[in-house]
Amino acid sequence: MAKVALFIPCFVDQLTPEVGLDMVRVLRRLEFELEFPQEQTCCGQPAFNTGYWNDARPVAERFLQIFRSAEQVVCPSGSCTTMVRNFYPELLAGTPWHEEAIKVGKRVFEFSEFLVKVANVKDVGASFPHRVAVHDSCHALRELHLKPESRELLRHVRGLELVEMPYSEDCCGFGGTFATKFGAISAAMGDAKAGYAESCGAEYVTATDPSCLLHIDGILRRRKSTVRTIHLAGILAQTASAAERGARPAARESAR
Amino acid sequence: MATTEPQTENPGRARILERLRTALRESTPRPLGAEGRTIFAPVTDVMARFQQECAANITECIVTPDMQASGRAVTDVLAALPSGEIFVQDSSAMRRLAPEWQATRSIQWSSEGGPKKSAQATITMAEALVALTGSVLVSSSCGGRGASVVAPVHIVVASADQLVPDLDAAFALMRERNTAFQNSYVCLITGSSRTADIEKILVMGAHGPIRLIVVLAMRHD
Amino acid sequence: MSNAAHEFLRSAAEKSADLAHRQIIRRGIDSYNAANERGRSRFLDWEAARLRCQEIKWEAVNNLDRYLLEFEQRVKDRGGHVFWAENSKEARQYIADLATARGVRKVVKSKSMVSEEIHLGPALEKLGIKVVETDLGEYIVQLRNETPYHIVTPAMHLNRTQIAALFKEKLGDVDTDDPQQLVAAARRALRRDFFSAEMGISGANFLVADAGMIALTTNEGNGRLCTSVPRIHVVLSGIEKVIPRLQDLATLWPVLATAGTGQPITCYSTLAGGPRQPNEVDGPEEFHVVLVDNGRSELLANVEEREVLHCIRCGACINACPVFRTVGGHSYGTTYMGPIGSVLTPRLRGLNEFQHLSYASSLCGACTDVCPVKINLHHHLLHNRRDAVNASDRPWSERIGFMLWRWAVEDSRRFRAAGWLVRLGMRVVHRLRLDGTVLDPARPWNKNHAAPLAPAKSFRALWGKHNGNN
After folding, report:
1. Residues B55 and B207 sit within 8 Å (Cβ to Cβ)
2. Closest to C30 measured CA to CA, from A157, A196, B20
3. CATH number of domain containing A149
4. What tens digit of pLDDT does each residue of C168-179 get?
5. Which chain A residue shows the shortest CA-CA distance from C33?
6. Is C407 part of the contact surface with chain A (CB cutoff 8 Å)?
7. What average pLDDT does range C204-219 have in this prediction?
8. Is A254 close to C450, i.e. CB distance below 8 A?
């Protein structure tokens, strides 16, 4: 099997490392050989989304430089994968890196996409006996055209009861700097999402994107909700033996 | 009040055109288009489809064997309406059917002018009937513009041979007949007037007719 | 920050917290979504319909001068007049002069967003001309002295109780909140106006070049009455509304109806060209088409943004937008709201004053997904942002922020150090219980969220240590 290069988003690396670690656990369980290019930092999305394309460009070139020789790259975030695959070509149009962007883009995959569509695996040997609802992160849904993949993976998780959250495709309101620039709107959107999660009786909300979960979690905790959030990798990393050992699921923790 | 004449000069016109031409020196790539793909499933049974769509869009569709029977059907419809003048398109077909209606109603013919706002009903013919959407195509030749909108009830006297399968066919027919050039007004009517502007609740009967009735003769004699 | 931006933030915050408002909008949008889904299923291939419409609009917009000239010639052949207005002022002036010259005292209007854009109503009222909005939703907001909340359903923010109270106050002959009765009351009131107005003003959904006719998509019949009864018919339209051929409507009409309201086609798909002909029974004596530029030719010249002119004003993007659903149509403070408004307004009225609209989006892409003519709306929001930055028009704090960001991410050691510092800061703030307070640098986040806990170690540190083993 070809080596898998890990693309760990900047904020996952620094703020939610458990997402990366869980993805590693799953990939190791499936016997993938992994490498983590240490030079990586950020894909450039924050600058790109805010309109600072001249600043995003060199950062994107640096990313391509780091990953150009990787045969397959896996990322636990739909939005970061989208940045590379769908937006690098536009950002680097008219530059010598344009071709490379298109080539590398074809080899970068979001985690659930990689498991189901590249590795052809649906059952990763996970166990997570809880009621789980999926929030369909916007980039994964509309840019990468992913929706059934995460559900397929979850259906094979032992003990897991999959429930559908109303308006699962509605944006959670994170949107990067949107959350701080337009905090009231972002919070209201997150509030609506939290309400839907509570209404469907889920114990956990999961998604392909840790940024969505950071936002939804912060709102749920604020509402003193009993619903918790956990990244898809966090669920898939859980095994029966781990549960028996009393290991707690790596759900988002935040201050009360 | 000052009687200034409206601008006959229009210097902006040349400037706008100049800007457009300059802008269009650079082109954008042509999109792929829908080449080869079928947008609507072809209509196989125009009569059945027309009736089905009328039911869906709340057009009352009364099927009769021939024009004479249609005349009687119109009489029945009129009998149930409040008393008052009706407006009828002045055509030979309508003149033939009219005597029966004139027994109980005074008729204003389209040749005398547009319908009065007090008309209880208007009776017109149509250019065509479109099966795909259950629509009636009228033009200003069908008794004028007001004929299909002023009165609370609009009755269309048509025949089955006027049915066309879809909008493409309707426009092809219009091209054949030069409808767009012989008329200053054409309207594709689908159901009676309605609005959902209050809480998105559908209310039938806004400013146009509250009832649209198509009396459809199987044979046009 | 511009005044418009301040006002937007204020209104957005107010509406975001208004749960009752959010519920009304949710119900309205749910109703639309159900109808729209049914509508799309009537197509064998909805995607093919979108591609066809995209192609038609591309052809029209990329040959705009040619098709506008063809349209103009055919309108004139029919005895109509065409006036090309460079801006709002010229358009208003033409109509005002016409109305004054013809002794018009009352105007009945069917829906025209361009008339809002050029602020026509107040200009005519100033001349003592009564302007009556006849589209029910527009009529309602006019009675309330409000602007349209949505380009297709202008009164979707109101419930029947509010409308009943409004009608009772303004019309008098209403004592119920039954929608049927309310519509009947509006019909009675407006009927008098249709038959007494000297001028009818309409918009145009399309300008058909090969026929020299305008196409109007309506349901109520008010548009038909406005364009049939008064002796003068004036059409107000943006220059980008022209389409090449009549048969293009075979696809555009059902697509517009489906995207706009979920209907297979609206009740009245009307074609009006010219005044009444000599052999015709009735119709206006005069027909004037006012073509409005108002910044559209500039947009045309911007090749990257040109496809924004393909918009057929269906409102689907507005319905799909979670930001619209949260802040409502009035918060935008502009003629066009939602995604199309956020893309278009900065281009027509200035990036400097209106860029905040392009930033007020989470870039979820739902708008692009639903656009029936396949405009890449959220990409255009990104372009607006990029152009605002390149015009050096952004707050200095943001510019400095991204300079720091770039410094940090261009070197992995600097990145590690920066990350470590951020986590340290988070722990300090948390330990001192300063989360969300004015001393918390992460206050914009923490005032709306329970603060996240900073992990002790980063992924790379843990990878390095255990090589990722459990």
Report:
1. no
2. A196
3. 3.40.50
4. 999 887 888 899
5. A167
6. no
7. 97
8. yes
Whether residue A219 has pLDDT greater than 90: yes
Kindly report, residue by residue over B123-156, the tens digit of the pLDDT.
Answer: 999 999 999 999 999 999 999 999 999 999 999 9
C460 in A contact zone (CB under 8 Å): yes
In a domain, B38, yes or no: no
Q: Which domain holds residue B138?
A: 43-217
C188-194 CB contacts, 8 Å cutoff, 24+ apart: C190/B207, C190/C108, C190/C132, C190/C134, C190/C139, C190/C222, C191/B117, C191/B207, C193/C106, C193/C108, C193/C132, C193/C134, C194/B207, C194/C108, C194/C134, C194/C222, C194/C225, C194/C226, C194/C229, C194/C230
* Total residue length of chain A: 256
Among candidate residues A85, A118, A151, the one where a domain is terminated: A118
Distance from CA of C265 to the nearest CA of A (A): 28
CA B79 to chain CA centroid, Å, is 24
pLDDT in the model for residue B199: 85
Averaged pLDDT for residues C57-77: 98
- Residue ranges making up the domain that contains C408: 396-466
- Given a cut of 60, whether residue A254 has pLDDT beyond it is no
Is there a contact between C230 and C288 (Cβ–Cβ < 8 Å)? no
Supply the CATH number for residue B198's domain: 3.40.50.10420
The range of the structural domain enclosing residue A191 comes to 131-244
C 410-439 residues with CB < 8 A to B = none
Assigned domain for C263 exists: yes
Looking at residue C468, what is its pLDDT?
47
Predicted pLDDT of residue C143:
92
Q: What domain count does chain B have?
A: 1
Q: Does A194 reside within a domain?
A: yes
Whether chain C has a CB inside 8 Å of the CB on A134: the answer is no
* B93 vs A146: CA distance, rounded Å: 61
Tokens 């066809």 appear where? Answer: C52
Nearest chain C Cα distance for residue A196, angstroms = 13
User: Is A194 near chain C, with CB under 8 Å?
Assistant: no
Q: List the beta bridge partners of residue B211.
A: B153
Q: Cβ–Cβ of C268/B208 closer than 8 Å?
A: yes
Question: Per-residue pLDDT tens for B112-121?
Answer: 999 998 999 9
Q: Which residues pair with C91 in a beta bridge?
A: none
A133 touches A193 (CB < 8 A): no
Q: Which of C327, C402, C435 sits opposite A185 (nearest CB)?
A: C327
Question: Which of C12, C17, C419 is opposite residue A13, by nearest beta carbon?
Answer: C419
C219/B193 CB distance under 8 A = yes
Rounded CA separation B162/B220 (Å): 9
How confident is the model over B65-87, as pLDDT tens digits?
Answer: 999 999 999 999 999 999 999 99
